[in-house]
Every structure is written in C-alpha cells, then in structure tokens.
Amino acid sequence: MEKAYTSRQQRGYDTPDSHFLIKSLEQQRREQAVLLKLSSIIAGAKNRQDLQTVITDQLPGLFGGRYYTLCLINEDGVTHSPFLYTAENSIPYRDETPIIVSGHPVNDGIFDKALASEEPVLIDLQTAIKANTVPRYVYRWFNAGISEMLLVKISGGGMPVGVLYLYGEKKGAFQADKFGLFKCIADILGTGFRNILLNETMERQLREIRKYQEQTDGDVPGFQGNTKQDNGIKAVIGNSPGIQNIFAVIERVAPSDSTVLLQGETGTGKEVIANAIHAASPRGHHRMIKVNCAALPPDLFESELFGHEKGAFTGALQRRIGKFEQANDTTLFLDEIGEIPLEFQAKLLRVLQEKEIERLGGKGVIKLNVRIIAATNRNLAAEVKAGNFRQDLYYRLNVVPLSIPPLRKRKEDIPVLVTHFVNHYASIYGKKAPIITDKVMESLMYHDWPGNIRELEHLLERSILLSKKEVLQIDLPCAHYEASSSEEERLFSIVPLATMERDYILKVVRLCNGRIAGPNGAAAKLQLPSTTLNSRMQKLGIRKEHFNIRSTLRQADAI
Ligand SMILES: Nc1ncnc2c1ncn2[C@@H]1O[C@H](COP(=O)(O)OP(=O)(O)OP(=O)(O)O)[C@@H](O)[C@H]1O
C-alpha cells in the first residue's frame, strides 16, 4: 500500500535524509555553543589553577571520559611531562607506582603518534597492551580500570607543544562524532595554556629580578646606603633661586614617566637630583638602579645593560639580569650618558623606543616598564654637532632637560651646604661640630669651586677630620686656577660683570651689618642714593637673607 504523504513530508522535512540533516545541524549548534562557552572560560583563565578547573569541570564529562592529563614537551625537546591532570587522589591505583610521573620520552609510541596526527587518536588499552606497543604508564592506567584513551595534539604559536589525554573507563566511552569538537577545544586550550605559560615566565623573571635587587641592595655605586628620605628632595640642600627652580621642576616631572636629562658640571649634584626625582615619583618605593656609563668597557655595555643567557659567549657561565631588567617598574639612572660608545647608541635608542630588551643569547624580547633619568657633564648638543653623539638619541633623552647651575652661580647655597656638611661629618667622626666664623663662611662663599659641591664637601670633611680646634679652620685650595685655560684666566678667574657687581654689593652690605641707608649704610659707602642701591639689589636678586649671614646660618641650622 502506498504511503500517504503529509504536507510536511511533501515539502521534504520528514524524509530520512532530512532527519539526518536536522540532527547534524542541531549537533553543530550544540557544539558551537559548547565551544563558545569554553573559549570564553579559557580566555578568562589567569593561571594554571583556573585552567585546571575548566578542564576538570568541562572536558571529561563532555566526551565521556573520567580523567585527563595535559602533557607538554619539556625544554630538552625529547621528553614530556604532565602540566595539568586530574587530582591524583581521585585516581584508584591498584599498584604502588604513581601514574603521574615526569619525564617520559616523546617517542613513547603514543605521545608521538598523537603529535603526528591532525585528528584525535583513540587507543583501546587491552588491544594495545596485547600488541605490546605502549609505554609503561598505559599499563598503570589499565590497572586503574581504564579501557580507552583519547589523545589529541595541542599546539601553541603554530608548533606542537603537547598532548591532551582523556581516559575512559567503559569501552565506547568516546564517540567518534565528538572528535571534531575535541580537536577544536584542544586548539583553544593551546592558546589558553600558552598565555598562562607566558604569565608564569614573566612572574618567574620578576621573582628573579626582585631576588637580584635584594642581593645587590647596598652595593650599588653611588647609593651609599642612604635612607629613602635622604635620597629624596629633602637631601637636596639649597635655597638659591637656581635650586628653587630645580625643586619646582622636580615636583612637576616626578609624578610622570618622562625621561629627564640632567646636565651640569661635575659635582653639581646631578645624582642627588636624580635620586630626588625618583624618590618623589610613584616608583619611589623601589630602589633606583644606576649605571655609570663612563665606568663600563665598550664590549660590556650590551651584557651589562641588557643581560645575557648562560653560554651566550665565552665566559658567560651564568645567566645575568641586565640593568634594564633590574629597573623594571622603577627608574634607571644612566649616569655619564655622554660617554657611551657611538656603536652602542643605536641599540640603546631602539630599546628606549620599543621599551623592550633582548638578553644576549636570549630567545625572545622582554617588555619592560622603566623610567629613564640620564645625566652628563658634557654639552650633549655640542657633542651631537661634533658627531660624537647620535642626534636621534639626544632627542629621545632630552624630553625634560634640567640644567644644574654650578656652585659659583648659586653662592647663596653655600652657608646651608657648609652647615649641613659640618654637622654631618662631625657626627660621623664623633666630634663636636665646630663653630663657623663669619670670616670662614665668607671665604668659602668667595671661592670659585671648580669641583662644585663635591669639592666643598671633601674640603669640609678633611677640615673636620684633621682639626682639633673648636672653631672651623679651612685651607682653601687654589686648584681652580689650574682649570682655567687662558693666561688671563690663570691670573684671575673671569666672572660675568653682574656676578661681580652682585658679590661686591653683598660684601659691602655685609660689612655694614645689613644697613643700606644712613651715614653708616652701604649706600653711603658706595656713594649712591639708597633708593638706587635698593633697586640695583632688587635687579640683581639680592634679598635680605643673602646678606644677613646670621639669618642664613639660622636657616641652615634648622635643616
Ligand atoms: N644640593 C645638594 N645637597 C646636598 N648634597 C649635595 C647636593 N648636591 C651635591 N651634593 C653632594 O655633592 C656630591 C656630588 O654630588 P653628585 O654625585 O650628585 O654630583 P654629580 O653632578 O652627579 O657629579 P658627577 O658629574 O661627577 O657624577 C655628593 O656627595 C652629594 O651628596
């Protein structure tokens, strides 16, 4: 009898072919939903534990298995080890040997088979054991009640990196129609676990850096074991307009990550100011890392700054973490930047631009977050003109230029600096701080200080160490004459006329005990109306505290 067709059948919906089509469309939809859900969970996994939870919760049930292991090829390339696996205490052992052990050969007969296959590989344990073609760990799974294993290759960055194993207790646990889905999930897992490995590598590197930073604490040149506060803005002593301008710049630039270029003569306090910027910055709770570029032999620049891997060159017996990596999340102070060899300048520029380094002999780049402060006592713009310094590197460093005036241009800072160093060295050498007479202070203020604050500091340290008197005695050197180049400059130190005028007026006003007007005032001595002298002093930036040494000393005492 002929079968009567319904209108649905007439339209072809209920034929055997259409049933199959609808079923496979539904399966496709379900699989897509599973993939979508899993890929978002895997993408959100931040560490190994998260990934383990995803696999444990989702995979075995989805494919009918009970346990799983995700094994990765070890660094040696010839062995593999479990990376993630079902909690071991949930596997029912029937012998003493643990199932999850490290270091199986990649060519163990099943791992390599899965690696070579684009499709999942199903292994019937009984058959495989009979054929004696499987490694020892398969026997142990068999003893734990497993009858089937489903293996799929995991790739990361386009390379096979491991194999995911699912273990089923019943025969036929794994249905062939889910193999496609299994493969897709393995691909998503590959990306997920690669991110986690990268995170773990970064964390390991950070731990190494911190360990290294802790080890080198205290022996960093120029660090001198000072407290953070000592290295901060409070350690920068001075009240001259020049130093006040510097304080204002420090306050403006410290909170940013901008590169700062400090220029100034030797001993003017570039390092002290670099420390102050760092200490006032959000990175100030980490130690600033310093490199003295003038002290590095040219062939060591790269390994000192970027580090090297063990065996990168003859003599590289250990991995070395370079200064850039040590300075991650903190500040790198590149002192004497003008001394770096031309051939290294391009490499340094690239690192400053890309914000990443590659260790010598290393396999990949390392992203870094480093704030740069550079310093030099050379005129870098002139060095660029002379072809000794790359122009592009100069612009890259000269984002916030800060020029530190020499001590001879900020003599008002001398009294506070003298008091500070006298008290400091007296306490270091266990002595009572000597009295500083006005005469001594004046002679210190009128000296030229070619070596700047460093020279002043050393002179005072020497005086305190050698003196047995209650009054500070100093023996001023004449070294500044040697620093001058021409015959005239050897005879007398040339200073701008305005400085001369300023110093002279100050001297006279001091002699008159700060009096300007009246018969015994400075104006009368200089044969000027007091109003003229006052306006001249204003123009030259002379304020009351500059000529009143006692008040300057009182200020200095208050530090
Ligand atoms: N404003 C300051 N207050 C207190 N001490 C200072 C100040 N400036 C410099 N010093 C002291 O002077 C000495 C030299 O300073 P620093 O090393 O910072 O100078 P520099 O310009 O970096 O020298 P160089 O160019 O030779 O490296 C240090 O002992 C430092 O403590």
Automatic annotation (TrEMBL):
An example Gene Ontology biological process: regulation of DNA-templated transcription
Domain annotation Sigma-54 factor interaction: ranges: 236-465
Q: Which PROSITE patterns match?
A: SIGMA54_INTERACT_1 (PS00675), SIGMA54_INTERACT_3 (PS00688), SIGMA54_INTERACT_4 (PS50045)
Q: Which domain of life is it from?
A: Bacteria
A Gene Ontology MF term for this entry?
ATP binding
Q: Which CDD domains match?
A: AAA
Which SUPFAM superfamilies would you find in this protein's record?
A: GAF domain-like, P-loop containing nucleoside triphosphate hydrolases
Keyword vocabulary terms for this entry: ATP-binding, Lyase, Nucleotide-binding, Transcription, Transcription regulation
Q: Which residues form the signal peptide?
A: none
Which PANTHER family does the record match to this protein? DNA-BINDING TRANSCRIPTIONAL ACTIVATOR HYFR-RELATED, TRANSCRIPTIONAL REGULATORY PROTEIN
Report the protein name in the record. Answer: Formate hydrogenlyase transcriptional activator
Lineage in the entry?
A: Bacteria, Pseudomonadati, Bacteroidota, Chitinophagia, Chitinophagales
